[in-house]
């Protein structure tokens, strides 16, 4: 199974009084090496019936329909889920492709598969006329390097990461978002795919794709148009021999002009994060100073440069229950804990291994405590503080879900709702009678992957 692609068909459709109901799994997942797909079979699923306009089919999305439409949905569904098994994400056709090519199979094209054979019969359920399904160039590029279609496929141990980008710049020219990329090192990408996803619509079925395959194997240029006034997330997929890597860049086009600076910022931040993990403080300072020169109006880089000094020379930790009475406020970031543990890497304050500076919803925080579930930080307050004030969220770039919990002397005094990426919350809690304060994070019931929780600006006040 680790070296094959497997399609499992089950008789998982029940019929009663001319109405069908799916009772089994329907989906697919995999990569360029192996994958698995599940699909439903029944007595009416037959490719020879794709052209039929005879009644007799039923599907929960369209109600009663022709046998041809029934097969469009189920055979198109098999093709779509096999695409996921082969490692294909969702993608959508561009407006300019619709009249000539049709509807992308890995978008909603499974609802149009073979529809042209029937001439767009009867009620047009999806309001797109006689269009049929097609396989996008982006999907074709990924398939061309995968085990199923590449006779020279070999499992590669090489990884492509953001540290192999020499340039990631964007500009806005003649109504197009221009993304220019230069890479260094090995492996060399065969091509770069841009999945441009409008975040105002649910799911990623509407992510339009652009493809760059350059004569210069280390330079790529993408020209992206059909931009709505909306928030976007662009996924840049680098297709390398026997694999692929992905970098996500969120940007805004709400004003009609894309926020292009975020592209180069992503690369700079990744470089800084790598250097911070290596404790190359002086090199980090030089990179930040260059950013200040390029962005003299930005206060954030100034704040990060100042915070770097604290990271290099953190203050000596003190015990919150031994603070002089005339001190009215302290930051828990640099106080001694009775116990601390996290579910990934090691406990840390003010900075993160791998991710560098603390940032939530594009907001930089100099003060904060890393808390990947399941985590616990226990502090002795000695009933000397009146209130605990804090913000909380998930580190940018980590699309996890976390629940934040505060306990006082073993009693739960706060439990958050499920917190997701790009959300900053604030809370103030009475701790005047608390001897021992515990800060806890839990996963939200969907596993702990990417759950990089943060207690931000955690302050004790009198």
Report on this model:
The chain is of the alpha+beta class. The chain has 4 domains: 5-145, no CATH class; 162-259, Sandwich (Immunoglobulin-like), CATH 2.60.40.10; 274-311, no CATH class; 320-461, Jelly Rolls (Sandwich). 17% of the residues lie in helices and 35% in strands. It has helices at 67-85, 95-98, 137-145, 261-277, 281-294, 299-312; strands spanning 5-10, 13-16, 19-22, 27-30, 35-40, 55-59, 63-66, 103-104, 133-134, 165-173, 176-183, 191-198, 208-212, 219-224, 231-240, 243-252, 329-331, 339-341, 358-360, 363-365, 368-370, 375-380, 387-394, 401-408, 411-415, 419-420, 425-430, 436-443, 453-461. The strands form 9 sheets. Strands 18, 22, 24, 25, 26 and 28 form a 6-stranded antiparallel β-sheet that branches. The longest helix is centred in the first third of the chain and has 19 residues, at 67-85. The radius of gyration is 27 Å and the shape is globular.
Blueprint (SSEs and pairs):
Blueprint: E1 5-10, E2 13-16, E3 19-22, E4 27-30, E5 35-40, E6 55-59, E7 63-66, H1 67-85, H2 95-98, E8 103-104, E9 133-134, H3 137-145, E10 165-173, E11 176-183, E12 191-198, E13 208-212, E14 219-224, E15 231-240, E16 243-252, H4 261-277, H5 281-294, H6 299-312, E17 329-331, E18 339-341, E19 358-360, E20 363-365, E21 368-370, E22 375-380, E23 387-394, E24 401-408, E25 411-415, E26 419-420, E27 425-430, E28 436-443, E29 453-461
Parallel strand pairs: 1-5, 8-9
Antiparallel strand pairs: 2-3, 4-5, 6-7, 10-11, 11-14, 12-13, 12-15, 15-16, 17-29, 18-22, 19-20, 21-29, 22-28, 23-27, 23-29, 24-25, 24-26, 24-28
Helix pairs in contact: 4-5, 5-6
């Amino acid at each position: 199974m680790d070296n094959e692609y497997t399609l499992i068909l089950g008789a998982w459709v029940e019929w009663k009084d001319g109405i069908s109901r799916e009772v089994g799994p329907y989906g697919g997942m995999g990569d360029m090496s192996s994958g698995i797909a599940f699909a439903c079979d029944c007595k009416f699923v037959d490719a020879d019936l794709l052209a039929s306009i005879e009644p007799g089919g039923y599907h929960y999305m369209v109600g009663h329909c022709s046998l041809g439409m029934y097969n469009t949905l189920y055979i198109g569904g098999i093709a779509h889920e096999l695409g996921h098994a082969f490692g294909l994400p969702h993608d959508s056709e561009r407006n300019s492709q619709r009249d000539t090519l049709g509807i992308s199979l890995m978008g909603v094209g499974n609802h149009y598969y073979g529809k042209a054979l029937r001439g767009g019969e009867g009620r047009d359920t999806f309001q797109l006329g006689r269009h049929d399904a097609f396989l996008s160039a982006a999907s074709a590029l990924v398939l061309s390097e995968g085990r199923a279609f590449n006779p020279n496929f070999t499992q590669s141990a090489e990884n492509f990461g953001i540290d192999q980008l020499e340039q990631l710049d964007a500009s806005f020219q003649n109504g197009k978002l221009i993304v220019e990329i230069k890479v260094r090192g090995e492996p060399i990408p065969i091509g770069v795919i841009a999945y441009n996803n409008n975040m105002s619509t649910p799911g990623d079925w509407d992510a339009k794709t652009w493809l760059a395959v350059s004569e210069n194997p280390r330079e790529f240029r993408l020209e992206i148009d059909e931009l709505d006034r909306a928030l976007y997330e662009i996924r840049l997929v680098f297709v390398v021999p026997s694999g692929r890597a992905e970098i996500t860049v969120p940007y805004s086009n709400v004003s009609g002009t894309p926020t292009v600076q975020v592209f180069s910022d992503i690369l700079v931040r990744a470089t800084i994060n790598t250097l911070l993990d290596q404790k190359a403080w002086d090199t980090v300072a030089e990179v930040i100073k260059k950013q200040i020169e390029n962005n003299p109006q930005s206060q954030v880089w100034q704040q990060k440069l100042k915070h770097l000094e604290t990271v290099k020379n953190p203050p000596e930790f003190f015990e919150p229950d031994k603070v002089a009475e005339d001190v009215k406020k302290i930051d828990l970031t640099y106080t001694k804990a009775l116990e601390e543990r996290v579910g990934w890497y090691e406990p840390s304050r003010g900075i993160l291994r791998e991710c560098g500076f603390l940032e939530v919803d594009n907001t930089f925080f100099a003060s904060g405590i890393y808390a990947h579930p399941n985590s616990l930080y226990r502090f002795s307050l000695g009933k000397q503080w009146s209130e605990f004030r804090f913000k909380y969220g998930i580190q940018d770039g980590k699309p996890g879900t976390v629940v934040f919990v505060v306990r006082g002397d073993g009693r739960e005094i706060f439990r958050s709702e499920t917190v997701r990426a790009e959300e900053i919350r604030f809370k103030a809690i009475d701790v005047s009678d608390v001897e021992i304060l515990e800060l806890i994070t839990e996963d939200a019931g969907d596993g702990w992957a990417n759950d990089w929780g943060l207690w931000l600006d955690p302050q004790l006040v009198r």
